[in-house]
Specification:
The protein has 168 residues and is an alpha+beta fold. It contains 4 helices and 9 strands, in the order ααααβββββββββ. The chain has a single domain (3-166), classed as Metal Binding Protein, Guanine Nucleotide Exchange Factor, Chain A (Beta Complex). The protein has helices spanning 3-24, 32-35, 43-49, 52-58, and strands at 78-82, 88-91, 95-96, 104-105, 113-118, 125-130, 136-141, 151-154, 159-163. The strands form 2 sheets. Strands 3-4-8-7-6-5 form a 6-stranded antiparallel β-sheet, with no helix packed on it.
């Protein structure tokens, strides 16, 4: 095999893999009604209520840079909510320092999140989204602490925080 054939083969494989990933990875935009979310807004409506960075993560499944979120350092007692719809997602009692650069939790609140498999990095990962508005939150991995052994690795920009003294 000559170098040209090898390069063409690699390029063809990359195009095919990208097509596979885009076909099988879930995109929130234009898909919310099909998924049956309680809160459905047009792209224009989401852009009006979210900052550009929030929009990119929650609606376009982007990932914020590690170690950049204020939520990483949030230590008060309270509840982490969806930045898109204010649904309570995680209790501060389940937050822990994972060392990954993103806020991590070992368990969501009951009926707060939903998951699905994505293949964006050409391997199966479990994507986590808000069960009410479909906003992309991050991913869950099986390398967390007891009692669940799970690490919900969330984009801090997708979360808001309500301290216990402000709740109710």
């Amino acid at each position: 095999m000559n170098r040209r054939a090898l390069l063409l083969g690699v390029a063809g494989a990359a195009v095919a893999a990208a097509g596979f990933a885009s076909t099988w990875s879930w995109r929130i935009v234009g898909d919310a009604r099909a998924e049956g979310f309680e809160i459905v807004k047009s792209d224009e409506e989401w852009r009006k209520i979210l900052s550009e960075a929030e929009y990119q993560v929650l609606r376009q499944e982007d990932t914020e840079r590690p170690f950049t979120s204020d939520m990483l350092h949030e230590k008060r007692d309270g509840t982490f909510t969806c930045a898109g719809c204010d649904l309570p997602l995680f209790s501060s009692t389940t937050k822990y320092e994972s060392g990954t650069g993103w806020p991590s939790f070992w368990e969501p609140l009951p009926d707060a999140v939903a998951t699905r498999t994505d293949y964006k990095l050409f391997l199966a990962r479990t994507e986590v989204h808000c069960r009410r508005c479909g906003g992309h939150l991050g991913h869950v991995f099986d390398d967390g602490p007891p009692p669940t052994g799970q690490r919900y690795c969330m984009n801090g920009i997708a979360l808001d925080f309500v301290p216990d003294d402000k709740a109710a």
